[in-house]
Amino acid sequence: MFKKILIALAAVVIVFLAVAAFQSPDCRISRSAVVAAPPATVFEQINDYHKWVDWSPWAKMDPAMKQTFEGPPAGTGAIYSWAGNSKVGEGRMTITESDPAKRVSMRLEFLKPFAATNTAEFTLAPEANGTRVTWTMIGKKNFAMKAMGLLMNMDKLVGADFEKGLSNLKEIVEKK
C-alpha cells in the first residue's frame, strides 16, 4: 500500500513538472487607466523616479525601503534602486527610452526574492477625457516561474499592483 502511494505521488510530481516545462516562457502583464490630464503632465510623474515614491504601490508596502538614485534626475539613463522587506524585494530600474508625453521604457532587474530581468513600459495616448496610461511588463519565465504560475495567477497578483499604482498616479496627477 505504501509503495502504491509513493508511486502515485511520484506520478503527480512528474506530471506537474512536465506541465510546467511546457508552459509558455513569455510573460506579459498590462493594465490601463484614463487620467484626466494631458499626456505631458502624466509623463512628468512617470519619467522621474524621484516622483515614483508618491504613487508606486510598492513604496506603501515598505515605508522603510532603501532607495537610491543614479544618473540624470529624469529621462533616459536615470536609475532607481531599491532594497526592502519581503513584499518589495530588491532590484533596479533604468530608463532606457524616454519619448516625451508618449512613452517611457525601462529595464527592470529583480534581484530578490528571485532574479529576473524584464522590460517595463508606460505608454500615453491622448483621449477625449485625458490620457490613457498603459503600464506593461514583458519578460521571460524560467522553469521555477512556470511552475509557480501553475499554482498562482501572476497576472492577477502583479496586475493588482499595477492597478493600484495607476489609481495612485491618477489621484496625484488629477489633484495638480
UniProtKB/TrEMBL annotation:
Gene3D superfamilies: 3.30.530.20. It holds the Pfam family Polyketide_cyc2. SUPFAM superfamilies: Bet v1-like. Residues 1-20 form the signal peptide. Keywords: Signal. This is SRPBCC family protein. It comes from Luteolibacter ambystomatis.
